[in-house]
Structures are given as C-alpha cells and as structure tokens.
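Human:
Take a look at this sequence-structure pair and walk me through the tokens.
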Amino acid sequence: MKPLKPQQHSLVIHDAKIHWCQIAQSTRMPHQQGKVTLVGAGPGDPDLLTLKALKTLEKADVVVYDRLVSAAIMALLPARCQTLCVGKAKGQQSITQAGINQLLVRLAQQGKQVCRLKGGDAFVFGRGGEEIQYLRQHSIKVDVVPGITAASGCSTYAGIPLTHRGVSQGCTLVTVHAEKDLDIQWQALATLNHTLVFYMGLSKVDLICQQLARAGLGTETPAAIIEKGCTDEQRLIKATLATLTEQVKHHQIGSPALIIIGEVVSLSDSLAWYQPQIDAVMSMNQCQK
C-alpha cells in the first residue's frame, strides 16, 4: 500500500472526525431528551411560589398549565417561554388527562425543558402521581417541586387554622369531584371530631351538608366557604352546617371555592389578618358615602 500524501492524510482524519462526531451525536440523543418538572403553583398569590418553582419557570422552554393557575403567576414567565393551557373546566370541552400525558411525553422527546404547572400542590388532588407514572413508562426524566395546597393557603388567608390546641387535633382533605358516583365514608368523617376540608365541592355543597348531618354531625357545626382564596378577590362566607347552602346561593359564590367544616371556623374573627383588595375597595366606598 502506498503511503498517503499529507493532503490525503488530513482528509482521512477529517472524515474520521465527522464519522465519530455522528456516532457521538447518535449516542447522545437519549441524553439530550428533555425533562418534565411538575411544579405546584400554590393557591393563587404569586408571592407564595417557592424559590425552586420560580427558578424552574425561568428555565422552562414550555409551560403546560392548568386553569387554576393565576394570571399573576403566568405574568412571571419569560417572554421566550411557550405556554399551553390544558385546564379542565366543568361543562366545557377540554383536553383529556390522557391527552395531557401524551403532550408532556411528546414535548420532552423534542428535547424541551417542560414545566407542568399545577394549582396548589401536584400531589394533592392534582393527578401528579398519574402523570409521573405515565412519563416514566415512556422513559422521561421527571422532577417535582411541591407547592402550597389550597387547604393550607386559603385557610390561613381566611384566618382559619386547620388545627388548634383544644379545638381540633387533625384535618381531613376530601375531594368531591368524581367521574363516577362519590365513594365517601360520611359516617367516618362525621365522627372524626376534627377539621374537614372539601376540594372542588361548590356544586355539591348541599349534598355535603346533608350527608354529614345525616351521619350525625351537628347542624350547628361552624362552616365556611372561601372563594378565590389567596387572591385580591378572596371572599370568606361563614355559616353553619345547616345554613351553608343557603349562604352560598345568597352570596353567589363562584369557582374556585374551598369548603371548611369544623369548630376552627369560629376562630377566624380573632385570627383574621388578610384584607383582600376587594374588601379594601368596599371599605373606601363606604367611607366616601
């Protein structure tokens, strides 16, 4: 074999570099796959976002968000960030959970840093576990950033402690949003003698009150509903188990709303600290009259 000339030798080296570069790129492809981070956005107030949540939002290529994520939080996203709303609302056509799962996989496979932004905490009635299971079935890397769940945030902003020495030693979180018939042990809830918090229960407030009363919970038990908690539009309506349904109708409470039932509700007058902007405006109008 004849020895290669200098020019030919450099061409061979150049071709070899290209060849190995292509192999390296094909080898790295799985590692260049994107990642999905489930982020709890909290109950509404952007100041309640964790530092880790904020850092994740700043680095995200695309944010897939739910209906309950507040506009104030969405305003924090960098302009370059793509946003996709997959929020599900009652009576409205929206993307299915299966569709959301597939979307997350597809975006990650495109190499994107995906932020799956959920109201409250992803692991409290947020289907975060279901989404992680699906992503892992498709070999997608997943991180999770906890958020403040509505029960904690909204009750605090309403001046209602979920537990209080001598009043309530425990708290039960219940969702009354079900695709099929509700399977709730009302008798057990009524005899727990501690705080009950109902998520997504606005349309079933009458059912909740009736079932608890039928199970033995006293009709004079303090009850409250918090509309748009942790925002400037927060409204707190207090009643009893017997009158909550009537008060909800009278005040035309809308979604999102959180229901709290238990003796701790009676502490709100002495523990109240947050004055929503809507209350401040109403107070100013009353002063001007």
Remarks:
- The radius of gyration is 26 Å.
- The chain has eleven helices and ten strands.
- The chain has two domains: 35-148, 151-271.
- Residues 35-148 form a domain with the Cobalt-precorrin-4 Transmethylase; domain 1 fold (CATH 3.40.1010.10).
